[in-house]
Amino acid sequence: MKNIKTIIALLLAPLVVAACSGILTSDEPPRQEYLLMPLPPVTLPAATPAPSVSLSVSAVPGLDSNQVLALGSDARLSHYANARWADHLPEVLTSVLRRSLTATGHFSKVDGSSFSREANWVITLEAQAFYGIRSAGGDTTSVQVRLAGSVRCGDASEPLSLESSTRVSDQHLAAVVAAHQSGLDDATRQLLIQLEERCG
């Protein structure tokens, strides 16, 4: 009886090893993580005294994700397989915009928190669009970026509206990500212009 158990154990051993190796390997492509960068430095006229800024960015339901998203012609929100941002969208946009504002040299401090008592200007933005636009055939034709909110730089709040649509050069994921970067750069330039117009 003991010999039979030993033989059965020896016969089952290769099957157990094969099953374990199946758990440790995958045919899925590796996850690709993409980094969005701040706008190349744009020097603004120095303000006296230089204002400090509090910046907060939120996202509408569905966009608060670290996935690279696409909106189909049937209004269905999906994502590009295995493509991720480095963090969830509000954190990514807060970091990128904070660094872009800091690089202008116009502000004494740019705080990426939701609220700061010491800040002279308070900027609040909501990401309302940050995705590829897919045709009925499934091709990505463009990338839509839209942020809306307000800035308080005195006794009253002034509206902010940033919007960009960037065509996608080809159907490779790198081209889709590049279009997101271009759209964010355009929205950041609009932010700088609107801050100058509304707050001086």
Describe this structure in words.
The structure is a single chain. The chain has one domain (32-199): ABC-type transport auxiliary lipoprotein component (Rossmann fold). The chain contains three helices and eight strands, in the order αββββαββββα. Strands 1, 2, 3, 4, 5, 6, 7 and 8 form an eight-stranded mixed beta sheet that branches. Helix content is 32%, strand content 33%.
Pick out the low-confidence regions: 14-26
Q: What would you call the quaternary organization?
A: single chain
- Rounded to the nearest angstrom, the radius of gyration is 24 Å
How many distinct beta strands? Answer: 8
Q: CATH class, anyone? A: Alpha Beta
Indicate the overall shape. Answer: elongated
CATH topology: Rossmann fold
Question: What is the fold's blueprint, element by element?
Answer:
Elements: H1 2-24, E1 32-34, E2 52-59, E3 67-71, E4 77-85, H2 89-103, E5 109-111, E6 121-134, E7 140-152, E8 157-167, H3 173-199
Parallel strand pairs: 1-4, 2-5, 2-6, 3-6
Antiparallel strand pairs: 3-4, 6-7, 7-8
In short:
Helices cover 32% and strands 33% of the residues. It has 200 residues and is of the alpha/beta class.
Characteristic terms for this protein:
single chain, 200 residues, alpha/beta, Rossmann fold, eight-stranded mixed β-sheet, 8 strands, 32% helix
